[in-house]
Amino acid sequence: MGNIATTESLGQQELEALVQVALAEARKQGVDQAEVAASHDIGLLATARLGDVENLEYTNDRGVGVTVYKNGRKGSASTSDISADSIREVVRKACTFASYTAADPHAGLAEAELMCREIRDLDLDYEWSIDSSQAIAMAIDCEKAALDFDSRITNSEGATVSTNRGTRAYGNTHGFIGSYTKSSHSINCVVLGSENGEMQRDFHYSAARDPADLESVSSIGELAASRTVGRLAARKIKTAKAPVLFVPELARGFIGHAVGAISGSAQYRRASFLLDALGEKVFPDFVSIHERPHLPKGMASAPFDAEGVGTYDRDVVANGVLTGYVLGSYAARRLGMQSTANAGGTQNLIVAGNGGDLETLIREMGTGLLVVELIGQGVNAVTGDYSRGAVGQWVENGKIQFPVHEVTIAGNLRELYSRIAAIGSDQDLRGGIRCGSLLVEEMTIAGG
Asked: Is 252 in the same domain as 280?
């Protein structure tokens, strides 16, 4: 048997066939268990800067990864050569590597009874039929819209149009095999503005499974420019304790720190500011976090996780109380629990809002800091100490007064989560955590 697929695009059947070749070889080698993942991605990316093409990339990546378990020992190997002979050799390499690793009683496949029984069509695959010349033209138009928006927009880091379609197949010696195809398309623009010797930079982007759901190139460019101009004439402020309002794209990262803290690896390593917090009240009563893996077109939707475990709806937080961790099978065994179908990450976490849009929350905040950018990585995942550089807008009497820079916002995440006063309805749908604007009733704001 030679190359199973030699065409440019490998479909689900071709990838599943590669998985079967690897599993057959693993059984031949006498392993106790084995799992195989195969993938193929095709993408196009075009970047224009100051009206000219700056970058044009075409990707066509394929690969097969194999993990075997024998006598509690684990070995892994991978290849981008999809010939049957190469795949069999990779399996043999994985078996060899397993002979050198230490036995681990927690290692192995997820339990057979947890395997996905129905691979749903989640409406994730939309081809964007644009060629390189069309992508370049769109990028140029997007950037032009930004440059023409305001005379204070004086330079550009470029606009980028990107399209990608990828197919994933997974199988293991439980007899499970499944696959699905998903697409991801995006447009972004980054520009610089200057006034009275001061220079600022900002951006905007749109991302979706379906290209029809993308914002127009002109609106993306104009919003990037508007955000940049809104930063000019920034001031420093005095150190104070005041409310802080995160825009949606930053709010999802703020919530993401909690998701990392309740991951299985953080819990069994005893390295989490939410250690053993299951059943505890972490957020105010109005905060719930729902995991919804089967949302049509969802950016993190998936019928099964990286171990073949069927995904399902659940509440991670209910009425402020932590009701579940984020577990793959290995972490679950270490904790004496069961996988939550999160090997490889969560799928569409929805943070339910209790407030209106951003403008409404600005009015409700009264006086405080609206944060539009965070700088640095000052988050201690063990203690929860939080200290980030911030850029934003100072608000008084419910209205934006002036842009602010060179400030630091700080606190402890465990305390900050309990101080969340409102979560907006303006959810950001571009990522795996859907959260609206988020208002914390008080943080330390260190000024200049």
From this structure: yes
Residue whose structure tokens are 């509440």? 315
| 212-220 contacts at long range (C-beta below 8 A, 24 or more positions apart) | 212/126, 213/297, 214/185, 214/186, 214/187, 215/187, 217/138, 217/139, 217/141, 217/142, 217/145, 217/159, 217/161, 217/187, 218/141, 218/142, 218/145, 219/145, 220/142, 220/145, 220/159, 220/187, 220/188, 220/189
- pTM of the entire structure? 0.93
Please state, as a whole number, how many other Cβ atoms lie within 10 Å of the Cβ of residue 382.
Answer: 13
Average pLDDT on 108-123 reads 96
In a domain, 1, yes or no: no
360 has pLDDT over 70 = yes
Q: Distances in Å between the alpha carbon of 315 and those of 293, 319, 355?
A: 12, 10, 20
Residues 6+ apart with CB under 8 A from 228: 153, 191, 192, 193, 200, 201, 202
- Residues in the chain, overall count: 448
Share of the chain above pLDDT 70, in %: 98
Q: Which of 229, 256, 279 is the last residue of a domain?
A: 229
334 belongs to a structural domain: yes
How far apart are the C-alpha atoms of 203 and 208, rounded to whole Å? 17
pLDDT at 4 > cutoff 70: no
Using the predicted structure, report yes or no on whether residue 440 has a pLDDT greater than 70: yes
Quick one: what percent of the chain has pLDDT higher than 90? 95
Residue 76 forms beta bridges with which residues?
67
CB burial of 9-32 (b: ≥16 within 10 Å; e: otherwise) equals ebebebbbbbbbbbbebbeebebb
Q: Rounded CA gap, 350 and 300, in Å?
A: 11
Beta carbons of 344 and 364 less than 8 angstroms apart: no
Q: What residue type is assigned to position 98 of the chain? A: A
Alpha helices in 187-281 (DSSP H): 217-229, 248-261, 264-268
Total structural domains within the chain: 2
Query: Given a cut of 60, is residue 2 above it in pLDDT?
Result: no
CATH for 115: 3.30.2290.10
Mind listing the pLDDT tens digit for each residue in 273-327? 999 999 999 999 999 999 999 999 999 999 999 999 999 999 999 999 999 999 9
Which of 210, 229, 248 is the C-terminal boundary of a domain?
229
Domain that holds residue 436: 234-448
Place of tokens 């201690």: 380
Neighbours of 133 (CB within 10 A): 11
Residue 420 in domain:
yes
Whether 2 is in a domain gets the answer no
